[in-house]
Each structure stands twice: as C-alpha cells, then as structure tokens.
Specification:
The protein is mainly alpha-helical. Helices cover 96% and strands 0% of the residues. The longest helix has 53 residues.
Length: 55
Amino acid sequence: MRIFLYYFCQCAIVALNAIEDLNAKTLNAIKASNAIKALDAIKALSAIKPLNAIS
C-alpha cells in the first residue's frame, strides 16, 4: 500500500508541475499578446497625430 501511495504522490507532483509550467507559459503568451496590442495601439496613435495636425 505504501508503494502505491508513494507512486501516486509522485505522479500527482509531476502532474501539478506540468500544470504549473503550462500556466506559466500561458501567462507569458498573454503578456506577449498584450504587449503587441499595446505597441500596435501606440503605432496607430502615432499615425493619427500628424493627421490631426494637418486638419
């Protein structure tokens, strides 16, 4: 019984580590996506400013 519990706990730890790694990668992807969106918004605003100066 102890051996079963030992291996069960080891598998649970491996699974939790995999989930934690996946969550970290997902968070990094979201951060990168948000950074790209922010840069795109800044570029769009930078393009609009000269147009506003003309009118």
